[in-house]
């Protein structure tokens, strides 16, 4: 723990800032607003693509909120719709991964800029299309459709099959990919250096903020890099057990304002908490 004042706050969204119904509680919203009022740079660091983040910015209208989308592959400055920093999987590598996964019968989802491409229609696809409409497209030959770099590739499988799938992906392409996850049935693949931790490092350098003055909170494997890099790292009670074991601090459940508990602890005057 550092005694330096916090100047940057990074928040994972699903399972952390958001409740189970995907809303932000009044207490969490107020705690983030208190950070903004103190000129603390707030970063929504998420696995989501940018269109999946923008509706939540309305919780703090007009406030300067940074976004690290697709696990940090795409970084957006406040108020900007185009990323100022991108780290994407090379198209040829993305095609190879997608073609191999498809041949294994794996359901694949690829984030390309502000589009989501999938290799077949599933209930998950239908739900995603209901939410994002034309931004989601089914491509039967997904590998051939990938002409640009992929911000993130997701491989969906049965929970019991994920460990073997991860071992195979790492054996084939481990040197060229970051491999992590945000759900027990999903592998998330990004370009080397496209992690939430590296995204925070990039933003901290841009803003001249010492890492000891960065606070970060999340709940899953894809959050570990930022939780462990930040001077003040924490996870919520509902987090993946492996994350709880190594996080410097565990706060309340995401449905019980764990984020607000974390924020209030470093905003409170010395001795008040």
From TrEMBL:
CDD domains: HAD_Pase. It holds the Pfam family Hydrolase_3. InterPro entries: Cof, HAD-like_sf, HAD-SF_hydro_IIB, HAD_sf. NCBIfam families: Cof-subfamily, HAD-SF-IIB. This is Cof subfamily protein (Haloacid dehalogenase superfamily). It comes from Symbiobacterium terraclitae.
């Amino acid at each position: 723990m550092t005694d330096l004042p916090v100047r940057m706050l990074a928040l994972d969204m699903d399972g952390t800032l958001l409740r189970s119904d995907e809303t932000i509680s009044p207490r969490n919203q107020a705690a983030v607003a208190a950070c903004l009022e103190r000129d603390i740079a707030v970063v929504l660091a998420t696995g989501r693509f940018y269109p999946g983040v923008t509706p939540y910015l309305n919780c703090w209208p007009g406030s300067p909120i940074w976004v690290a989308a697709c696990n940090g592959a795409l970084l957006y400055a406040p108020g900007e719709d185009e990323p100022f920093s991108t780290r994407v999987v090379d198209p040829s590598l993305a095609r190879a991964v997608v073609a191999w996964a498809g041949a294994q019968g794996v359901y694949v989802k690829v984030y390309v800029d502000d589009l989501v491409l999938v290799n077949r229609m599933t209930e998950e696809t239908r739900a995603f299309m209901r939410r994002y409409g034309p931004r989601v497209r089914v491509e039967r030959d997904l590998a051939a459709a990938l002409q640009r770099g992929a911000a993130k590739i997701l491989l969906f499988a049965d929970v019991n099959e994920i460990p073997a799938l991860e071992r195979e992906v790492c054996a084939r392409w481990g040197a060229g990919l970051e491999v992590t996850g945000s759900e027990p049935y999903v592998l998330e693949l990004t370009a080397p250096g496209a992690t939430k931790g590296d995204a925070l490092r990039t933003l901290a350098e841009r803003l001249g903020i010492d890492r000891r003055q960065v606070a970060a909170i999340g709940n899953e494997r894809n959050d570990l890099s930022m939780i462990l890099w930040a001077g003040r790292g924490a996870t919520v009670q509902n987090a993946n057990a492996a994350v709880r074991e190594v996080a410097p601090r565990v706060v309340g459940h995401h449905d019980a304002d764990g984020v607000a508990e974390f924020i209030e602890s470093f905003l409170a005057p010395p001795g008040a908490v």
